[in-house]
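Regression check, manganese (II) ion case 581:
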Amino acid sequence: MTSQLAALNEWVDQVAAHTRAARVHWCDGSDAENRRLIEQMLDSGDLLQLNPKTHPECYLHRSDPNDVARVEHLTYVCTREKQDAGPNNNWMARDEAHALMSGLFAGCMEGRTLYVVPYCMGPIDSPLARCGVEITDSPYVVVNMRLMTRMGIEALARIEREGQFVKGLHSTGELDPDQRYIVHFPEELMIQSYGSGYGGNALLGKKCHALRIASYQARDEGWLAEHMLIVGIENPKGEIRYVAAAFPSACGKTNLAMLIPPRAWQEAGWKVWTVGDDICWLQPGEDGRLYAINPEAGFFGVAPGTGASTNPNALAMLDREAIFTNVAVTDDNQPWWEGLDDRRPARDWRGRDYDPKNGPAAHPNSRFTVSIKRCPSYSQEAENPRGVPIDAIVFGGRRASLVPLVLEARDWQHGVMMGGAMASETTAAATGKVGVVRRDPMAMKPFCGYNFGDYFAHWLAVGEKLSRPPRIFQVNWFRRDQDGRFLWPGFGDNLRVLAWILERCEGNGKALETPVGCVPAADALDLEGLQESPDMENLLAIDEAGWREELAGIEAFLADYGDRVPAAMKTELERVRRALS
Ligand code: OXD
Ligand code: MN
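Current build output:
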């Protein structure tokens, strides 16, 4: 097979010659192709079959122990001008980056098959969707891309029609951490990734295309590519409202996207519909509202912590047709991770006999890959080519103190400042120290493909196009008491906060104004049925001295972006500062 698009054929031929690939395989996305790849990986040991009785068509991949997370320090955005990538990105001159990558790719597929993976990010017939082609030498990447994107002949047909696509080139190389680079050329719509097989580094449709390249394209074209889940909340009247929520990696986006309402709320008729759990593309509609699509078709979720009480919907979708990466196994070969249940695992993520002395049995960033259609709360609207209208945008971080359970921004401009000022504790989703608070504007620190100063200006410009903009909120499920215990139960009970948020969007819901935004009035959150009554005073407290320090931190952070920071952000900061003093 080849394509009818000369530019695509030429690129594939040129890469095949340069990498000296032994064979070229154009992926059609069919079941038969998927089965053949899985069989081949079972033979090579790249995949292990899990218990076929309890987990039919489920497989385990154990990665190289040095290749278990995104590598932000090895991820580059290579624009013509360094300032266009901004202080938020590592930058390399384009010529230098091309020369470096060309050297790494030379001959790297000798003896290997080169797979051509055409994919579409978003519903195949959506004007908001965008396509790409990933060339990879990893069959693990191919089978994951098939779950995570619309991959195969339909995507290829759209690419041939449009003539434009993002070019992604990937090789696992030798999996040497010293020869690992994830490089983006947004001006050329091109990604090159070498030396890693890990999801965020290797499934190029996800972070590399749908966030870094797409955010860059979105700025030129007037839309937004964001690190957000999309969830529909159905009230007892049968009305569904959609919320898009940005949280940094491993802060519960997947759980929130498929939350199960508290029992009494279920009985009253509340339902939750999952549109997406990680990435959201937002476009102003003709009616002045903001519309969202999920560019992905599957979940690449964090396994540890997923259990019957935290995320029963996720558990229900993980017992067939799922790929697990770096989880542990029980003695009858079922996948296992911390937080699943109290069985004792037999082998850890590296395949060793489980010994608690070696640390957790499953890697803290172990993952599952599964089609979104397997989710019990899957929303058919995920296929709607127009997207879903968004009523509320929520920014959330992991903060032990300071940020209250929920805050409402006064307006879009204040909301952009709120999101832009976000900070959160780091997690195992990227290599590096865990638990360090860092600035993570809109949860996009690792993913924004251009200068954050320009990004804030673009957010403000999008807001100006909306006559009915979503309201903007900030949440923090992770606030702790003096003894380090979480103050809020989280998970299904987060619906209590979302319900207040949606009431506010309708112009109802009681709120109190504070210098940093509105919080729910004392009796505004419905807390009935909670086993323990949370310390709401503490959860909603505004520590003014702490916020003054926070403002100084935000200003120091923004100072790095100089003149690129829009004046409106500074005006908002100044307004909050005055209210605090
Ligand atoms: C992810 C991440 O995999 O954010 O979604 O790291
Ligand atoms: Mn993510």
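Comparison notes: The CA atoms of residues 262 and 417 lie 33 Å apart. The radius of gyration is 23 Å. No diff flagged against the previous build.
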